[in-house]
Amino acid sequence: MIRAFWFLTVIALISLGGALVADNPGAVSLDWLGYHIDMSIGFMIFAVLILALLLATIFRIWSFFRKAPRRLGRVNRNWRRRRGYKALTQGMFAIAAGDAQEAKRQSKKAENLLAEPPLTMLLSAQAAQLSGDDKAASKFFEKMSERKETKYLGLHGKLNQAMQEGDQESALELAEQASDLNSKTDTVTRTLFELQIKGGNWIEAEETIRKLIKNKLVDVVTGRRRRAILIYQQGVEAENEGRLGDALQLVRKANNLAPGFVPAAVRAARLMQRAGKRRKAASVIEETWVKNPHPHLAEVMENLAPGAGGQEKTRALEKLANYNKDHVESHIAIGRAALASSMWLEAREHLEAAKRKYPGDIPSARICRYLAELEEAENQDVEASREWLKMAADGDPDSAWICSDCGNVVAEWEPVCERCENFDSFEWQVPPRVSRLTATSYASESDDPEQTTIDPEGKPIKNKNQNESDAGNASN
Ligand SMILES: [Zn+2]
To answer: Distance between CA 27 and CA 45 in Å, rounded?
Structure first.
C-alpha cells in the first residue's frame, strides 16, 4: 500500500517536472576543455539522471565483490556449526547407548567443527572414559577444571575418577573444591559428606550437614539427628583425649539436638556423674526415658542411685519408671532390680506386668529368663523355672543395635557400620530369627569379653540357652 503510494507520488512528480520543462523550454550551453556543447534543458536533466543511475550500478557491483569473502565465510561458519552440533548430539546419543567408538568419532568431529571447547570437552572426556581410556579422560577433565565455565564439571569428573581408583585423599580434596564451587548440587555434597565420615572428620562433616540443611538437600529432622551424632562423636574423641569438660559440653549439645538419642544421654549422664553432678545426670536420664525408654538408661540410673544397696537401686528405678509408667521397659527395669536385691513381691508384680504388656503371644526371652530366675530364687521351683526357660527359647530374642542396611549386630552403638560403611544405620531392634543365629556366632567369635558384661543373672541359662544369653549380652 505504502509502496504503491510512493510509486504514484514519484510518477506524479516526474510528470509534473516533465510538464514544467515542456512549458518552460530553455537551453544550456557548455564550454569545457575546448568543447562547446548546446543542448535543451530537458536533455540535460535526462543525461544527468542516466549518469547517476550508471554510477549507482557500478557502486553496487563493486560493493558486492568487496563483501563476498565475508559472506562466504559466514555461510561456511554456519554450515560448520550446524554439522558440529549434529555431531555433538550424535556423540551424546552414542554415550547413552554405550557405543564407545561412535562416541569417540563424533566427539572428534564436533571438536574439529565447533570452536567451543566447553561444549566438546565433556563429550570427549566421556567418550574416552567409555572406551576405557582413563588417561585421556583425565586429561580432558584437567583441561576443563582450568576453565572457569567448565571448572565444576572438570572437578566432578576428576572426583569420580579418584573415587573409582580408591584415592580417598584426592577425592576428599576434589569434593571440597567442587562443593565450595557449587554447594547446591546434591551428589557432590553428599559424596563429600560420605568421604568426611569415612575419614572420621566429624567437625568438617557437621559443616557439610549444615550446608545440606541450608540448601534443603536434607530435611531438618534428619539434619538435626545427623548433627547430633557428629557432635556426639566429637565428644567421644574429647573424652578419649582426656578433655572431660569439652566432652561433656559436646555430648550435652548432642543430647539437646536429639533428645531420644540414647548413646548421647548415657554418655552425658556418666560424664556428669564423674564431675559430681549426680542430680543433673539423673535428670538427663529421666528426660530421655520419657522419649525413649532403653535398658542402657536403666543401667546408668542404677549406678546413679544414692546408695549402693539393692533397695536404693530399686527405688531409683521406680522413680525413673514414673516418667513412662506403662512402658514394658519401665516394668522390666524395676523387676530386674528388685530380683537382684531379693525383693520378690515387687519383682513378681513388675515382671508379671511386663509379661502382660509385651506386644506378642509369648513374652520376650528376657522377661522369660527373669521369671525363671524368680521361680528358682523365690520358691526353689526348678520345674517352673525350667518351663520359663523353655518358653524363653520361643520368645523374641533380646533387642540389639542392628544395622538396618546389612543386619550387622554390634554390642555398642556406632556411627558407621563397619560392614556396609553406612552412616547412622544402627537401630535398637529385635533381631529377626535367622539373623539372630549369625549375630550370635558373630558375637561369640569376636566379643568374648563383652559376654560377661551385663546381666546379673543367667547362671542356670548358660548351658541350655547359651546362644540367647550371648545375644542378650551383645545387645545390652
Ligand atoms: Zn551395615
So the answer is: 11
Q: Is residue 449 part of a domain?
A: yes
Measured in angstroms, how far is the CA atom of residue 362 from the centroid of ligand 1? 29
Instruction: Tell me if residue 51 falls in helix, strand or coil.
Output: helix
DSSP string, 266-316: HHHHHHHHHTT-HHHHHHHHHHHHHH---HHHHHHHHHHSSSSSHHHHHHH
- pTM for the complete prediction? 0.70
pLDDT tens digit sequence for 239-293? 999 999 999 999 999 999 999 999 999 999 999 999 999 999 999 999 999 999 9
User: Of 97, 116, 149, which one is at a domain's C-terminal end?
Assistant: 149
CA 276 – ligand 1 centroid, Å: 37
Of 131, 149, 167, the domain-final residue:
149
* Cβ-based neighbours of 71, under 8 Å, separated by 6 or more: none
| In 150-219, alpha helices (H) | 151-165, 168-181, 186-198, 202-214
Measure 193 CA to ligand 1 centroid, in angstroms: 17
Domain that holds residue 133: 78-149
- CA 404 to ligand 1 center in whole angstroms: 7
Question: What dihedral angle (degrees, nearest 10) is formed by the CA atoms of 139, 145, 149, 152?
Answer: 120
Question: How far from 73 is each of 69, 104, 111, 163, CA to CA, in Å?
Answer: 6, 28, 19, 46
With respect to residue 462, please indicate whether it lies within any of the assigned structural domains: yes
Distance 423 CA to ligand 1 centre (A): 9
Return the SS3 of 24: coil
- For residue range 364-411, list pLDDT tens digits in order: 999 999 999 999 999 999 999 999 999 999 899 989 999 999 999 999
CA of 402 to the centre of ligand 1 (A): 8
3-state secondary structure of 131: coil
- Candidates 389, 384, 427, 386; CA nearest to 405 is 427
Distance between Cα 470 and ligand 1 center (Å): 20
As a whole number of angstroms, the longest Cα–Cα distance in the chain is: 156
Strand, coil or helix: 461: coil
